[in-house]
Design goal:
Elements (H helix, E strand, L loop, with lengths): L8 E9 L3 H10 L4 E16 L4 H8 L3 E10 L4 E2 L2 E9 L2 E9 L3 E2 L3 H14 L1 E2 L2 E2 L1 E15 L6 E12 L10 E2 L2 E9 L3 H7 L13 H9 L3
Length: 224
């Protein structure tokens, strides 16, 4: 009989200082799972949406086991794209999955009418915990993709050059704030949880924070 979580993935995340990038890559390649680059680096951009009370953000900070996150994602040029994807990330502890919808929009972040059109569409079509959502944070970063040489379904990503901008109805997203940390994430099937827990000790990873990118970047702009 198929397990309830067989198709689910577990994500483990660590935050490090920017100066740790080279040493982290060396450790990942030479120990444990022997991670190897499996996909070209690319730039990832998001707009995060939340309720008026920032429920998604506060649930993360409070350690609520069952929580959701909603974002619009695109790749490449931060300021312009016609390839947008809506991602709803649903998580219960470290077990989670994503629901994705492609939308046909020409987004131009140099034009506030374009931003307003997108936000109106998202707010009218998507909800978090049955509550209306609003744009909260823009962010952008570069990602290195690797997978295990031994177990290809165990993947590791390293995000760097993290930048963010708090949404403002009167300001375009210019002069994004540059952050001084990296995000390391290991993703794998639920059925390999025991294996990963055993082997991950070889890396001796000591994170400086456990918050998500959305949470840590928002908190860096203002107190929650």
């Amino acid at each position: 009989m198929k397990s309830l979580y067989e198709d689910y993935r577990i994500e483990k995340k660590w935050i490090f200082l920017k100066r740790d990038k080279i040493s982290l890559l060396n450790i990942l390649q030479k120990k444990g799972f022997f991670f190897r680059k499996c996909f070209p680096n690319r730039k990832i951009n998001n707009i995060y949406y939340d309720t008026s009370s920032l429920k998604s953000l506060r649930d993360n900070l409070s350690g609520i086991k069952s929580r959701e996150k909603l974002r619009v994602r695109w790749y490449g040029n931060f300021f312009s794209t016609n390839k947008l994807c809506i991602e709803r990330k649903i998580k219960n502890n470290q077990i989670g999955f994503k629901k994705r919808d492609k939308i046909n929009f020409q987004l131009n972040l140099d034009d506030y009418s374009s931003i307003k059109k997108l936000n109106h569409y998202i707010s009218s079509k998507y909800f978090l915990m049955n509550q209306k959502v609003f744009p909260i944070l823009y962010n952008s970063y570069e990602r290195i993709y690797t997978s295990s040489k031994i177990f290809p379904d165990i993947r590791c990503t390293l995000d760097f050059n993290l930048k963010s901008f708090i949404f403002n109805e009167t300001s375009l997203p210019k002069n994004l704030k540059l952050h001084s940390h990296l995000i390391l994430e290991i993703k794998y099937p639920f059925k390999k949880d025991d294996l990963v827990k055993k082997m991950i000790n070889q890396y001796n990873l000591k994170r400086i924070s456990k918050s998500s990118k959305y949470v840590s970047m928002y908190a860096s702009h203002k107190f929650v």
